[in-house]
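The freezer alarm interrupted the setup, so I double-checked each line after restarting. Inputs confirmed:
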Amino acid sequence: MHYRRLFFVFAVLGAVTLGACRRESPEPPAPPQEQPDPGPDMDSLQRVQDSIAAAEEAARRQAELERAQADARATLEQMVFFEYDESAITPQAEQVLRQKVSILEASPNVRIRLEGHTDERGSVEYNQALGNRRAESVRAFFVQFGLSSDRFETTSYGEERPLVNRSDEAAWAQNRRVEFVITAGADQINPPSM
Amino acid sequence: MRDQRMEGVLRRWTFRVLGALLLSGTMFTPGLMAQDIEERFPGVSLGITYDGRQAATLAIQPFTGRLGGENVAPRVQNIIGRDLRYSNRFQVLDELPASLSADEVDYGLWDQMQADYLVTGRVEGAGTTSTLILELHDVVYREVVDRGRFPLPNPESADFRMAAHVAADAVVMWATGEPGIAATRIIFSQRMDDGNQDLWIVDSDGENRRRLTNHQSISMSPDWSPDGRRVVYLSYRTGLPRIYELNLETGAEKMVPAPRAGDYLTPAYTPDGESVVFSIVGSGRSGLFSYNLARDCCFANISEGAYEDMSPTFSPDGSRMAFSSNRLGVGAPQIYVRPTNGGSAELLSPYAFGRPGYYTSPEWSPLGNRVAYHGRVERRGVHQILISELDQRNRIVRVTSEGVNEDPSWAPDGRHLVFVGERSWGRGLFIVDAVTGNVRTLVSGVRANVPSWSPSLAPRMAEDR
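Predicted 3D structure, all chains:
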């Protein structure tokens, strides 16, 4: 009798541990079906059930946090695009950059390399300067929102690393961009505080 | 003797002057009217520096061989014959007289073929010890202009072709008093399918193309040292573009230190070969900087501002430099010239008020009298090669018409330019002769970038021997 109860407790703990490990399944495991001896041990059973619920809650929060962090990271790494021969921030790019600003405010240890790119028109070497200008205008946007300038490093690949290897307007539009490479604090990305 | 020559010269030149008059009106306006050019590049004339003179006619008598040189002779002759065509200084005869004795020079026969010059060659010996005996004859004067002996390495060795190129350049020098371009090479970068880019090298006749670097990164913007032994270029191998010097003989590499943040771009040697000058772009400020490679020291600032000064290039005596800059506004780069030691910069590229234009990638001719660069014809990004003639009151001429053409680099003769061209059939490197307007393909079917033409490598060949 005594051993059977012990076995049951271990089984439940095992299930809880398993559940906690599977962060993508927030549903609690099925409640115990067999209650071998409800009589004298109600309190301890209740304690076990409470701990299960607490662990479950913690697991769910952890999963939510991780999902929010993954989302934040994706937002941080989302590229922004530019008009032909321009380095000015477009309205669409501004929306993306504003989201990045709130994440960067909440994640002071994150550092980013801004990599500017151009389309294939224009001079090869001059395009390296144009790509750098795009990266610098993203940095200036961040600084204007109070972020520290030295969290960002800028560089340019000019026209040498196209995203789309074609020569048409659609491809050029995709290739005129700044990419965001997280160089430090990738494990300390916090979602924006509400 | 004198009368004989005058007669021959007069006979030939009567036809040539007539021909030149006809040609000069029609030859250099392919697809574009003069007015068109005027509108796209203010003050630019198409028609380059064509001077109306016709090149001398040059014939090549089949080379002979002795003591084992029989097999090598035709190979050497082919290389030299093509080099002399590529020099654009001669009208090279393709046909031979019907009755030709292999061992003797019959000036009368060649005179009937309208030849002004005749090249004869004999290869003596085989293997590692053969020698080419080369002669240039004046057919009208019926005499030898000059002759030379050129050691030939084993025909299977890597230096064999270069040894023949050295001999070809000697013929050009004997006939014109000016340097040839056969004994030269061109370094450029080539983008591979995986997006990486490495430096490649090719002989002036398009042969012997091979890879120089293998960094699994982007390497580009090469510039040859004046002694032909080293090359500076930029590489992204650390993640950021930095300047490196590669010793072509030892393979040793040296990185230029980077005490300032920013992208290090467009490196170029100073004419003494001791220092490299380059652009640093970033942080809203940019400028030209120099570093002494010979002494490994002395990082110095040459210009600084918000203008994005790039692509420095020097007059042969080092007293002046040209570069591109955004002084007239972002997105409107122009070519400027200033004294190297400071002073105000003067605009060199075409400028019309209200139409700022787009001109980049200057390179100063090794003869000192010209600066080549490229300019944008239309907003969608069609570039053509232009030359500012400093000894012609900065007259600007355009030397390309077909396709898109960028990043010119001068040959040591100061009249040929190699450049990146895009045609309907693909991309490659092309060579234009700024005097005749002749264009030939150097490398085709590869995604080539920013070439640099070497100085003459003939002195190096002589030293190595």
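Quick read of the result. The helical segments of chain A are 2-21, 42-77, 91-106, 124-144, 169-175.
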